[in-house]
Amino acid sequence: MIYEQNWEDYALLDTSDGNRLERWGKYILIRPDPQVLWFSTKEYNKSRLWEKADAIYKRSSKGGGYWDIKNPVPKNWNIKYNPLELVFEITPMGFKHMGIFPEQAANWRFMYDTIKKAKDLEPEREINVLNLFAYTGGATLACARAGANVCHVDAQKNIISMARKNAELSSLGDAKIRYIADDCVKFVSREARRGKKYDAVVLDPPSYGRGASGEMWKIEDHLFMLLEMIKPLLSEKPLFVLINLYTAGLAPSCAGYMLSMIMGKDFGGTVESDEIGLFAESTKMPFPCGAFSRWRL
Length: 297
Known about the structure:
eight-stranded mixed beta sheet; 297 residues
């Protein structure tokens, strides 16, 4: 498992009874997580902060849920990922979302380091990155900070607005970032017809979803097809293709197998597949949050 321990404004304090106890800036929140199958006890250094949480996300029997506010919590506030000087606006939203996935910082560091190394070797080289299902822009900003041009694609216009705000907060408002509100599959198809080329591609696909015009996405049915469509978009010297997986039941090596079949066949390179997680302060152990697979030359 890979995980990032260099967060200062975020911390996973404890996990117990189907929930995470987290610190986002100065606020303590409790959010549900189905992977927490255990109970923390005094024996396992259970945090006393459970009783001091500012807000708790509670699921509804009818679907969705709501935030139970215990202490005054603003509608939004900012946190910073110091190693890359990235700033994100945090917003307690429906379905327990907060606006970023902090475990992805481990992948942000990989993208930044890989692009920065390529730029150091060839300072005049323009590196173009395609970020699909790009959400609020963590990967986009990491790549832009390293000096890449980024095409940021997400189906939801309100999410695009949040990504723009994060770029401004991170002093990357003038970076070479194209924001596209579109269905990712349709956009990739058009880019292929245009003969566009990218040096790196990032995908963070949902299990299920709908495009900007209601197009249905199902990861089991469409991910392999999308990877096949992406291959012609890769430049002659591609750096990487990275996939995040949050779909329960899919092993990390599942995406790695597809990357080896599609990218490895023509380009060679190597594939790394693993879990991605967060360091839990209470147990001093990494907590699993999802999976990733990345192909690179």
